[in-house]
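Researcher: I'd like a candidate sequence for this fold, 632 residues long. If you have to choose between options at a position, lean toward the conservative one.
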């Protein structure tokens, strides 16, 4: 305590009561917060205004180009819609993976006269497209200069506006002008220039030279991909609309064909992947798509049923599956909504081959894996060990229960103990009785194939086409299993466990269950392995209605396989609709009969490391299904 010479007490400089301490802390905190807020607002103003002005300049002043007599606008975007796109009133063709910088370039025709476009093409659409490409490529330097200049001028205008606002605020608050104001603003401009150069450098470093491998079609352009042979019916109400659609789709198809020629070898077969039908009435859509695109094989990742009862699979529903398998044979595994009774019913359908088995046990269900040789590919499948409403963990949905069960089922089905794996250089040998009957006589797949009878569980093929495949199934293919080209399961976590158990031995997995396709960036890993998670082709079907969930889109894919057995590309379709999908429309002749918003995405795969002498083709046929070769 301090006192004056006269004995008076002096007040201490710091508060000494708790209330005074609290008031002091509040004042200090408020002062610091106001200073931090002022700094944040100043920098936000300096950053947001230049970016907003640059984005506005890019949007307001597009580059006007004329290519082969067709007027186009080239418009840049900043922060929204990154990548490259071609936009029309019928939809867009988008390439989103060009660079890591959120900058986009979008090309759209302006007031196109369809009759003039037809005359310019002169009946030679591919040649017209090539001339358009050459003409447009010649204008690329001018387009780039225009867009870069717009961007820089917009940034500069934003910096000037931010400086003017800052100086006005200082004037209104009565603060004097800085003596080094010009130097201060010059440093700000230099900092902005450095940031711009750094972002441009990042754009160069993050440039994706294979951006053309990942594209997406939207709107009517995507719908036209589903029903190319029905364009006239789809737009029969308007001849001009048909002309527009035909012209735009023709140009897009010609450009897509050039990408296909550059990115993929000759296609040997097409594999369509579907999943989670859940009793929906969408098989007419799937059958039409399979027919239009010459699909050779269908891989179904399960969940055909809703509750796993035999009665759910009505004759009308089974007729829909039969109509599809008359177009292409189906390989099927059971999902968590499919019981052993569902498996038995699916085995009776002509053209359906059930991979593996699913049987009831004392405490739940046991699943086994199955293998076929399909058109030169080794395809394996394993069902989900659960059943909707099953006992204990076999009817569970909780991830902490389901994941261990899935991993356990994979290891049991493949004959691999926990924490073990089958190295890529180790042969998987079969028990001698696994591929033969009790008397040692091979399965009768080859004999059935020679007579043109149903093969496996009923996949009908032309006479004699499976002779070689049947012999392979009886001989070395049954005794030794090397690389699995495609392994289908229901749960994505089971696909993860497959890679753990068989590292380097599986080229592609197909799974479902989650009712949403995985992102394009997740399709192929750095090691080249492909993991395709399919959405619900039944749009959730009865399952989503029972659960009260929102309806997911109808989703399915087609994978192209080259003559050298490389998986070359996948086209993924998604159809959004708010209408229930339990009853098929009477005339399923257009995408609008099934949904309102169609999206089509194309992704090209990187080549995988496979044997150089491999050959794939439909002439090789499909063998009988055989059990997975378990260790003796």
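Model: Candidate sequence:
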């Amino acid at each position: 305590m301090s006192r004056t010479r006269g004995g008076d007490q002096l007040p201490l400089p710091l508060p000494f009561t708790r209330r005074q301490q609290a008031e002091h802390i509040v004042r200090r905190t408020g002062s610091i917060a106001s200073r931090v807020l002022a700094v944040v607002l100043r920098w936000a103003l300096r950053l947001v205004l230049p970016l907003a002005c640059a984005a506005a300049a890019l949007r307001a002043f597009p580059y006007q180009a004329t290519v082969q007599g067709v007027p186009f606008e080239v418009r840049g975007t900043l922060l929204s819609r990154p990548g490259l796109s071609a936009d029309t009133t019928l939809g867009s063709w988008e390439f989103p993976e060009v660079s890591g910088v959120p900058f986009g370039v979008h090309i759209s025709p302006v007031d196109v006269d369809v009759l003039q476009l037809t005359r310019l093409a002169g009946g030679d659409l591919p040649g017209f497209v090539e001339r358009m490409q050459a003409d447009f490529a010649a204008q690329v330097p001018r387009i780039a200069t225009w867009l870069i200049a717009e961007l820089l001028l917009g940034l500069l205008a934003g910096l000037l506006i931010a400086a003017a606002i800052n100086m006005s605020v200082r004037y209104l608050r009565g603060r004097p002008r800085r003596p080094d104001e010009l130097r201060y603003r010059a440093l700000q401009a230099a900092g902005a220039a450095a940031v711009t150069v750094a972002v441009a450098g990042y754009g160069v470093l993050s440039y994706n030279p294979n951006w053309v491998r990942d594209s997406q079609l939207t709107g009517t352009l995507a719908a036209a991909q589903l029903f190319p042979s029905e364009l006239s019916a789809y737009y029969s109400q308007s001849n001009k609309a048909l002309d527009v659609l035909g012209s735009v789709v023709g140009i897009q198809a010609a450009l897509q064909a050039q990408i296909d020629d550059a990115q993929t070898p000759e296609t040997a077969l097409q594999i369509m992947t579907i999943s989670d039908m859940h009793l929906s009435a969408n098989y007419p859509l799937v059958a039409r798509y399979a027919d239009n695109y010459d699909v050779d094989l269908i891989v179904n990742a399960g969940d055909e049923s809703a509750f796993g009862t035999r009665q759910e699979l009505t004759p009308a529903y089974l007729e829909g599956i039969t109509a599809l398998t008359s177009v292409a044979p189906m390989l099927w595994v059971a999902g968590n909504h499919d019981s052993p009774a569902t498996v038995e019913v699916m085995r009776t359908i002509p053209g359906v081959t059930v991979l593996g088995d699913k049987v009831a046990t004392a405490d739940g269900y046991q699943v086994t894996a199955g293998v076929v040789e399909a058109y030169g590919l080794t395809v394996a499948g394993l069902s989900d060990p659960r059943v909707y409403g099953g006992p204990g963990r076999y009817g569970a949905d909780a991830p902490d229960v389901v994941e261990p069960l899935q991993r356990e089922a994979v290891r049991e089905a493949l004959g691999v103990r926990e924490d073990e794996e089958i190295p890529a250089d180790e042969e998987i040998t079969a028990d001698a009785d696994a591929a033969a009957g009790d008397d040692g006589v091979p399965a009768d797949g080859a004999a059935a194939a020679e007579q043109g009878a149903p093969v496996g569980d009923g996949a009908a093929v032309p006479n004699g086409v499976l002779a070689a495949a049947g012999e392979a199934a009886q001989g070395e293919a049954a005794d030794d299993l090397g690389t699995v080209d495609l392994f289908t399961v229901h749960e994505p976590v089971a696909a993860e466990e497959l890679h753990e158990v068989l590292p380097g031995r599986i080229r592609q997995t197909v799974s479902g269950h989650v009712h949403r396709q995985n992102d394009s960036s997740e399709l192929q890993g750095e090691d080249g392995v492909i993991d395709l998670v399919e959405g619900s082709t039944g749009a959730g079907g009865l399952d989503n209605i029972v659960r009260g969930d929102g309806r997911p889109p109808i989703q399915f894919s087609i994978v192209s396989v080259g003559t050298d057995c490389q998986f070359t590309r996948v086209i993924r379709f998604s159809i959004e609709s708010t209408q229930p999908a339990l009853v098929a429309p009477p005339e399923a002749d257009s995408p609008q009969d099934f949904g309102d918003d169609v999206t089509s995405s194309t992704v090209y795969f990187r080549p995988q490391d496979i044997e150089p002498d491999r050959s794939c083709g439909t002439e090789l046929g499909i063998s009988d299904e055989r059990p997975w070769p378990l260790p003796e």
